[in-house]
Amino acid sequence: MSQELRDLLRSVLKEELHPVHERLDRVEQMQQKLSSDVGQIQKDVVRLQQGQQELRNDVARLQQGQQALQQDVAQLQQGQRALQHDVAQLQIGQQKLERDMTAMKQTLGNVERTQEKILEELRISKNNQAHILHDLTSIKQSVDVTVTYLQRRTDVMFDKMIEHEREILNLKSHLPN
After folding, report:
1. Each residue's pLDDT tens digit, 42-62
2. Between these two residues, 68 and 102, which has the higher pLDDT value?
């Protein structure tokens, strides 16, 4: 009779523990999915950090370009002063060089128009740089928000994994040895 009672007890336990085993299987699958999601999030964070570094490199290159443009403007201004000095000397010079002087004035006018075009291009470039710096700031802020969000999501996932592990341990503690 005790054998029958044992068999009956075993079959009842087996039936009762079957849903627990199924649930454990689902929890393990969920844990694997969470681990996979965490790995993907970590890869995404690395890609975002790489993108941020590339943006910093682009900003540094833009700043170098701006410095080169500023040096070009300074050289153009020096050239303009030299031309103005030459014009003054030509006016003091002989009268018969007036025809040459007219040509020099036309050349000076062309230089001034070119300088105005360059200054306008520099204004546009500076304006574009301001827009780019603004866009980069916005992107950085967006990346910071995204990283914060991903960190929070990772924390939530880790908390859920810990909770699932506790459930598993709790369930295992109720199982017979």
Report:
1. 998 999 999 999 999 999 999
2. 68
Domain interval for residue 154: 2-174
Question: For the domain that residue 86 is a member of, what is the CATH number?
Answer: 1.10.287
CA distance 54 to 48: 10
Q: Tell which wins on pLDDT, 177 or 32.
A: 32
Q: DSSP for 52-94?
A: HHHHHHHHHHHHHHHHHHHHHHHHHHHHHHHHHHHHHHHHHS-
Instruction: Give the number of domains in the chain.
Output: 1
pTM above 0.70, yes or no: no
| Crossing angle for the helix pair 98-174 and 2-92, to the nearest 10 degrees | 170
Distance CA 103, CA 116 (A): 20
* Secondary structure (DSSP) of 156-172: HHHHHHHHHHHHHHHHH
